[in-house]
Design a protein that fits this description.
Blueprint: H1 11-17, H2 25-28, H3 36-64
């Protein structure tokens, strides 16, 4: 959920990097945003989403006890 700004490695990507002389694969493997502020907003929204998910889980578990 919070890894959207990172590369998604795979075996085929690694294989392709061995012959990628011009480093063209580096540009296409990352989820880019138009501005650093946009990346921050997306990351913060994802973080709060994870917090909300954890809170909902804890509330459900507390009701069961």
């Amino acid at each position: 959920m919070t890894d959207f700004l990172f590369a998604s490695p795979s075996f085929l990507t690694g294989l392709g990097r061995t012959i990628d002389i011009g480093a063209m694969l580096n540009r296409s493997n990352y989820n880019l945003t138009s501005t650093p502020e946009g990346a921050d907003l997306r990351a913060i929204a994802q973080d709060w989403g994870a917090v909300g998910k954890d809170l909902r889980k804890a509330m459900i578990e507390a009701e069961l006890k």
